[in-house]
Amino acid sequence: MTEGSQPPAGVDTTVPTAARMYDYWLGGHENFAADRAAALKITEGTPGVPEAARANRRFLGRAVRYLAREAGIRQFLDLGAGLPTNGNVHQVALEVTPDARVVYVDNDPMVIAHARALDPGDTRPGSSAASPASRPDPVAARGGSRLRKRADRPRAAGR
């Protein structure tokens, strides 16, 4: 995080989280000392983890690009979304189709805060929504009307 900025409510900066460690491995800035220390400890035991995280992000971009361009998918549901970093689902999808809709779901309060900042109540196509998920409840029920405004079709929306 930038110096002097405060973490969102409910975020314990002394306890590392997978989302913030992943952000660190991707070169993001939404992580804290505890996350960096834990990530380095993991990397000591498994040196390939940072490259695997970057490869995973590249795959995400290829998959979303393919689904939007070739399969005509216009709705995306990102479960376990993680923190916004370059190449997020909404960024990639909107490069291909300006009417894409994205819903981000995660159980990390910092991830939800960041995803909600991407969605200041905008319901236009191309906007994104965030839904907290603390256990495997049906996503649509947890997202309520905000989710239904973004994902208005019962299954993947293609051609």
Q: Which characteristics define this entry?
A:
Rossmann fold, 45% helix, 159 residues, 6 helices, mainly alpha, flat, 3-stranded parallel beta sheet
Gist?
This protein has 159 residues and is mainly alpha-helical.
CATH architecture: 3-Layer(aba) Sandwich
* Overall tally of domains: 1
State the helix count. 6
- Spatial strand sequence of the major β-sheet: 1-2-3
First and last CA, distance: 41 Å
- What is the approximate shape? flat
In sequence order, what are the helices and strands, one letter per element? HHHEHEHEH
The largest pleated sheet is described as: 3 strands, parallel
> β content, as a range?
5-15%
What does this structure look like?
It is a single chain. By secondary structure, the protein is mainly α. The protein has one domain: Rossmann fold (3-Layer(aba) Sandwich). It is built from six helices and three strands; from the N terminus they run H-H-H-E-H-E-H-E-H. It has helices at residues 18-25, 33-45, 49-69, 89-96, 109-117, 139-150, and strands at residues 75-79, 101-106, 128-132. Strands 1-2-3 form a three-stranded parallel β-sheet, sandwiched between helices. The chain is flat. The protein starts with 17 loop residues before the first helix and ends in a 9-residue tail after the last helix. 31% of the residues are buried. Mean pLDDT is 79; it is low at 123-127 and 134-143.
Which helices and strands occur, and which strands form pairs?
Layout: H1 18-25, H2 33-45, H3 49-69, E1 75-79, H4 89-96, E2 101-106, H5 109-117, E3 128-132, H6 139-150
Parallel strand pairs: 1-2, 2-3
